[in-house]
TrEMBL record:
Domain (Fungal lipase-type): residue spans on this chain: 59-224
Protein known as: Lipase
CDD domains named among the record's database cross-references: Lipase_3 (cd00519)
InterPro entries: AB_hydrolase_fold, Fungal_lipase-type, Sec_MonoDiacylglyc_Lipase
Length: 282
Protein backbone atom coordinates (compact mmCIF):
# COMPACT_ATOMS: atom_id res chain seq x y z
CA UNK A 1 0.00 0.00 0.00
CA UNK A 2 1.52 3.31 -1.09
CA UNK A 3 1.78 5.99 1.62
CA UNK A 4 -0.46 9.03 1.35
CA UNK A 5 1.69 12.03 0.43
CA UNK A 6 1.37 15.39 2.15
CA UNK A 7 0.27 17.20 -1.02
CA UNK A 8 -2.39 14.55 -1.63
CA UNK A 9 -3.67 14.89 1.95
CA UNK A 10 -3.82 18.68 1.66
CA UNK A 11 -5.60 18.57 -1.69
CA UNK A 12 -8.35 16.22 -0.55
CA UNK A 13 -8.73 18.06 2.78
CA UNK A 14 -9.18 21.41 1.00
CA UNK A 15 -11.71 19.94 -1.44
CA UNK A 16 -13.69 18.44 1.46
CA UNK A 17 -13.74 21.83 3.19
CA UNK A 18 -14.91 23.48 -0.02
CA UNK A 19 -17.73 20.95 -0.35
CA UNK A 20 -19.78 22.98 2.15
CA UNK A 21 -19.87 26.51 0.62
CA UNK A 22 -22.51 26.81 -2.12
CA UNK A 23 -19.97 28.11 -4.65
CA UNK A 24 -16.21 28.03 -5.21
CA UNK A 25 -13.82 28.39 -8.13
CA UNK A 26 -12.75 24.85 -8.97
CA UNK A 27 -10.34 26.02 -11.69
CA UNK A 28 -7.99 27.34 -8.99
CA UNK A 29 -7.32 23.72 -8.02
CA UNK A 30 -6.31 22.52 -11.47
CA UNK A 31 -9.69 21.43 -12.82
CA UNK A 32 -11.01 22.43 -16.23
CA UNK A 33 -13.56 25.22 -16.54
CA UNK A 34 -16.20 22.72 -17.69
CA UNK A 35 -14.80 19.91 -15.58
CA UNK A 36 -17.42 20.11 -12.87
CA UNK A 37 -20.75 18.44 -12.23
CA UNK A 38 -22.93 18.78 -9.13
CA UNK A 39 -25.41 16.22 -7.87
CA UNK A 40 -28.21 17.23 -5.55
CA UNK A 41 -30.24 15.52 -2.87
CA UNK A 42 -34.03 15.37 -2.66
CA UNK A 43 -34.14 19.02 -1.48
CA UNK A 44 -32.05 20.31 -4.35
CA UNK A 45 -28.90 20.85 -2.24
CA UNK A 46 -25.54 19.84 -3.66
CA UNK A 47 -24.43 16.61 -2.00
CA UNK A 48 -21.70 15.44 -4.44
CA UNK A 49 -19.27 17.35 -6.67
CA UNK A 50 -17.51 15.64 -9.55
CA UNK A 51 -14.36 17.47 -10.69
CA UNK A 52 -11.90 16.73 -13.48
CA UNK A 53 -9.30 18.36 -15.69
CA UNK A 54 -6.63 17.47 -18.20
CA UNK A 55 -5.04 14.88 -15.89
CA UNK A 56 -6.25 11.29 -15.89
CA UNK A 57 -8.11 11.69 -12.60
CA UNK A 58 -11.68 12.45 -11.60
CA UNK A 59 -12.21 13.57 -8.01
CA UNK A 60 -15.61 12.89 -6.45
CA UNK A 61 -16.22 14.98 -3.31
CA UNK A 62 -19.01 14.00 -0.89
CA UNK A 63 -20.48 16.57 1.46
CA UNK A 64 -21.07 15.62 5.10
CA UNK A 65 -24.09 16.26 7.34
CA UNK A 66 -25.70 19.65 6.72
CA UNK A 67 -28.71 19.83 9.04
CA UNK A 68 -30.48 18.08 11.90
CA UNK A 69 -32.11 15.55 9.54
CA UNK A 70 -28.72 14.55 8.17
CA UNK A 71 -27.33 14.12 11.68
CA UNK A 72 -30.29 11.93 12.62
CA UNK A 73 -29.51 9.71 9.63
CA UNK A 74 -26.13 9.00 11.25
CA UNK A 75 -28.07 7.35 14.07
CA UNK A 76 -30.30 5.33 11.68
CA UNK A 77 -27.88 2.44 11.95
CA UNK A 78 -30.16 -0.51 11.25
CA UNK A 79 -28.28 -2.83 8.87
CA UNK A 80 -29.28 -2.75 5.20
CA UNK A 81 -28.73 -6.03 3.35
CA UNK A 82 -26.86 -5.99 0.05
CA UNK A 83 -25.74 -8.71 -2.35
CA UNK A 84 -26.85 -12.33 -2.57
CA UNK A 85 -25.93 -15.74 -1.12
CA UNK A 86 -22.25 -16.00 -0.15
CA UNK A 87 -21.62 -12.39 -1.19
CA UNK A 88 -24.30 -10.98 1.09
CA UNK A 89 -23.22 -8.11 3.32
CA UNK A 90 -24.77 -5.38 5.47
CA UNK A 91 -24.27 -1.63 5.41
CA UNK A 92 -25.53 1.37 7.38
CA UNK A 93 -29.15 2.11 6.46
CA UNK A 94 -28.79 5.90 6.81
CA UNK A 95 -25.87 6.22 4.38
CA UNK A 96 -27.58 3.84 1.98
CA UNK A 97 -30.62 6.14 2.10
CA UNK A 98 -28.51 9.21 1.26
CA UNK A 99 -27.33 7.49 -1.92
CA UNK A 100 -30.69 5.98 -2.87
CA UNK A 101 -32.76 9.17 -2.47
CA UNK A 102 -33.94 10.91 -5.63
CA UNK A 103 -31.66 13.56 -7.07
CA UNK A 104 -34.00 16.54 -7.33
CA UNK A 105 -32.46 18.53 -10.15
CA UNK A 106 -29.63 18.53 -12.67
CA UNK A 107 -26.42 20.45 -12.08
CA UNK A 108 -25.71 23.83 -13.64
CA UNK A 109 -22.40 22.38 -14.80
CA UNK A 110 -21.90 19.90 -17.61
CA UNK A 111 -18.98 18.09 -19.18
CA UNK A 112 -17.32 19.25 -22.41
CA UNK A 113 -19.43 17.84 -25.24
CA UNK A 114 -16.44 16.57 -27.18
CA UNK A 115 -15.45 14.25 -24.31
CA UNK A 116 -18.85 12.61 -24.10
CA UNK A 117 -19.53 12.56 -27.82
CA UNK A 118 -16.21 10.80 -28.36
CA UNK A 119 -17.56 7.98 -26.22
CA UNK A 120 -20.96 8.10 -27.98
CA UNK A 121 -22.54 9.02 -24.66
CA UNK A 122 -24.29 12.34 -24.24
CA UNK A 123 -24.78 14.04 -20.91
CA UNK A 124 -28.10 15.84 -20.66
CA UNK A 125 -28.37 19.59 -20.63
CA UNK A 126 -29.18 21.31 -17.34
CA UNK A 127 -32.79 21.80 -18.44
CA UNK A 128 -33.25 18.19 -19.55
CA UNK A 129 -35.08 17.02 -16.45
CA UNK A 130 -36.56 13.75 -17.77
CA UNK A 131 -33.16 12.12 -18.27
CA UNK A 132 -32.04 12.76 -14.69
CA UNK A 133 -35.26 13.47 -12.85
CA UNK A 134 -36.08 9.88 -11.91
CA UNK A 135 -32.57 8.85 -10.93
CA UNK A 136 -31.26 8.28 -7.44
CA UNK A 137 -28.17 10.13 -6.23
CA UNK A 138 -26.02 7.08 -6.94
CA UNK A 139 -27.54 6.49 -10.39
CA UNK A 140 -26.97 10.15 -11.26
CA UNK A 141 -23.32 9.87 -10.19
CA UNK A 142 -22.90 6.63 -12.09
CA UNK A 143 -24.28 8.22 -15.26
CA UNK A 144 -21.74 11.05 -15.00
CA UNK A 145 -18.77 8.81 -14.21
CA UNK A 146 -19.24 6.08 -16.82
CA UNK A 147 -18.14 8.15 -19.85
CA UNK A 148 -15.23 9.63 -17.89
CA UNK A 149 -14.05 6.15 -16.94
CA UNK A 150 -14.52 5.04 -20.54
CA UNK A 151 -12.28 7.96 -21.55
CA UNK A 152 -9.48 6.45 -19.43
CA UNK A 153 -9.76 8.53 -16.27
CA UNK A 154 -9.22 7.07 -12.79
CA UNK A 155 -11.62 7.96 -9.97
CA UNK A 156 -10.58 9.27 -6.56
CA UNK A 157 -13.27 9.66 -3.90
CA UNK A 158 -13.10 11.80 -0.79
CA UNK A 159 -15.54 13.04 1.84
CA UNK A 160 -15.92 14.36 5.36
CA UNK A 161 -18.09 12.84 8.10
CA UNK A 162 -21.10 11.06 6.56
CA UNK A 163 -19.69 12.10 3.18
CA UNK A 164 -16.74 9.83 3.92
CA UNK A 165 -19.09 6.92 4.61
CA UNK A 166 -20.85 7.57 1.30
CA UNK A 167 -17.49 7.68 -0.48
CA UNK A 168 -16.68 4.22 0.91
CA UNK A 169 -20.01 2.75 -0.21
CA UNK A 170 -19.81 4.31 -3.67
CA UNK A 171 -16.18 3.21 -4.16
CA UNK A 172 -17.09 -0.38 -3.29
CA UNK A 173 -20.06 -0.39 -5.62
CA UNK A 174 -18.17 1.20 -8.51
CA UNK A 175 -15.25 -1.20 -8.14
CA UNK A 176 -17.62 -4.12 -8.74
CA UNK A 177 -18.35 -2.74 -12.22
CA UNK A 178 -14.96 -1.13 -12.93
CA UNK A 179 -12.31 -3.05 -10.96
CA UNK A 180 -9.41 -0.93 -12.25
CA UNK A 181 -11.12 2.46 -12.18
CA UNK A 182 -10.67 3.43 -8.51
CA UNK A 183 -7.43 5.26 -7.85
CA UNK A 184 -7.80 6.28 -4.21
CA UNK A 185 -10.35 6.75 -1.40
CA UNK A 186 -9.54 9.32 1.32
CA UNK A 187 -12.01 10.12 4.11
CA UNK A 188 -11.92 12.58 7.02
CA UNK A 189 -13.73 12.05 10.32
CA UNK A 190 -15.72 9.19 8.84
CA UNK A 191 -18.15 6.98 10.80
CA UNK A 192 -18.21 3.27 9.99
CA UNK A 193 -20.27 2.37 6.92
CA UNK A 194 -20.87 -1.36 7.30
CA UNK A 195 -20.86 -4.50 9.41
CA UNK A 196 -18.07 -7.08 9.55
CA UNK A 197 -19.48 -8.75 6.43
CA UNK A 198 -18.91 -5.49 4.52
CA UNK A 199 -15.39 -5.22 5.89
CA UNK A 200 -14.68 -8.79 4.80
CA UNK A 201 -15.83 -8.21 1.21
CA UNK A 202 -14.50 -4.66 0.75
CA UNK A 203 -12.24 -4.68 -2.32
CA UNK A 204 -10.27 -1.46 -1.88
CA UNK A 205 -8.36 -1.75 1.39
CA UNK A 206 -5.11 -1.28 -0.56
CA UNK A 207 -6.05 2.27 -1.64
CA UNK A 208 -8.37 3.49 1.14
CA UNK A 209 -7.13 5.95 3.78
CA UNK A 210 -9.24 6.92 6.77
CA UNK A 211 -8.03 10.13 8.47
CA UNK A 212 -8.99 10.66 12.12
CA UNK A 213 -8.03 13.68 14.22
CA UNK A 214 -7.54 13.32 17.99
CA UNK A 215 -10.77 12.49 19.84
CA UNK A 216 -13.20 12.97 16.96
CA UNK A 217 -16.32 11.39 18.41
CA UNK A 218 -17.94 10.86 14.97
CA UNK A 219 -15.21 8.37 14.06
CA UNK A 220 -16.50 6.10 16.86
CA UNK A 221 -20.02 6.00 15.40
CA UNK A 222 -22.27 4.07 15.24
CA UNK A 223 -21.94 3.62 19.03
CA UNK A 224 -22.48 -0.14 18.96
CA UNK A 225 -19.30 -2.04 19.94
CA UNK A 226 -18.20 -4.84 17.60
CA UNK A 227 -21.15 -4.37 15.25
CA UNK A 228 -19.92 -1.79 12.73
CA UNK A 229 -16.36 -2.00 11.37
CA UNK A 230 -14.12 0.43 9.51
CA UNK A 231 -12.26 -0.44 6.30
CA UNK A 232 -8.98 0.72 4.80
CA UNK A 233 -5.88 2.09 6.50
CA UNK A 234 -6.32 4.30 9.56
CA UNK A 235 -4.12 7.40 9.81
CA UNK A 236 -4.69 8.90 13.26
CA UNK A 237 -3.43 12.46 13.79
CA UNK A 238 -2.70 12.83 17.49
CA UNK A 239 -0.25 14.95 19.50
CA UNK A 240 1.82 15.90 16.49
CA UNK A 241 2.20 12.34 15.23
CA UNK A 242 0.56 10.00 12.73
CA UNK A 243 -0.42 6.61 14.15
CA UNK A 244 -1.24 3.87 11.64
CA UNK A 245 -4.02 1.35 12.20
CA UNK A 246 -4.35 1.97 15.93
CA UNK A 247 -7.11 -0.26 17.39
CA UNK A 248 -10.25 1.64 18.35
CA UNK A 249 -10.04 0.83 22.09
CA UNK A 250 -6.41 2.00 22.17
CA UNK A 251 -7.27 5.21 20.32
CA UNK A 252 -10.16 5.92 22.67
CA UNK A 253 -8.01 5.19 25.73
CA UNK A 254 -5.10 7.36 24.57
CA UNK A 255 -7.42 10.23 23.62
CA UNK A 256 -9.15 10.21 27.00
CA UNK A 257 -5.83 10.11 28.87
CA UNK A 258 -4.57 13.00 26.75
CA UNK A 259 -7.73 14.97 27.51
CA UNK A 260 -7.48 14.35 31.25
CA UNK A 261 -3.80 15.34 31.35
CA UNK A 262 -4.16 18.37 29.12
CA UNK A 263 -4.18 20.97 31.98
CA UNK A 264 -0.83 19.56 33.13
CA UNK A 265 0.76 19.41 29.66
CA UNK A 266 0.10 23.11 29.13
CA UNK A 267 2.75 23.70 31.83
CA UNK A 268 5.50 22.08 29.73
CA UNK A 269 8.13 24.38 28.20
CA UNK A 270 7.54 22.88 24.77
CA UNK A 271 4.11 24.49 24.81
CA UNK A 272 5.64 27.89 25.52
CA UNK A 273 8.27 27.42 22.83
CA UNK A 274 5.68 26.31 20.28
CA UNK A 275 3.75 29.56 20.83
CA UNK A 276 6.76 31.80 20.15
CA UNK A 277 5.26 32.96 16.85
CA UNK A 278 2.62 34.91 18.73
CA UNK A 279 5.26 37.51 19.57
CA UNK A 280 5.78 38.34 15.91
CA UNK A 281 2.15 39.44 15.79
CA UNK A 282 2.13 41.29 19.12
Amino acid sequence: MKPLKRYQYERYAILCKLAYPPTFDHTVYGFSRNGRHEITDRWGRTIIRVLWGEKKEVVVVFKGSQNLWDWLLNMACLPKRQGKSQNRYYIHWGYHFLLSQKSKRQSLYQAPTDLFESQHIELSQASDQPQFGDLSVYQHLEKVLHPLIAAGKKVSLTGHSSGGAMAILVADRLSAQHPEAIKRVVTFGQPAAGLRSFKRLYRLNHCTYRICCDLDIVTFLPPIPFMYWHVGKLLWLHEGRIYENSPTPYRLYKSLVSWLLRPVTYHYMRKYIRNKDFFDKH
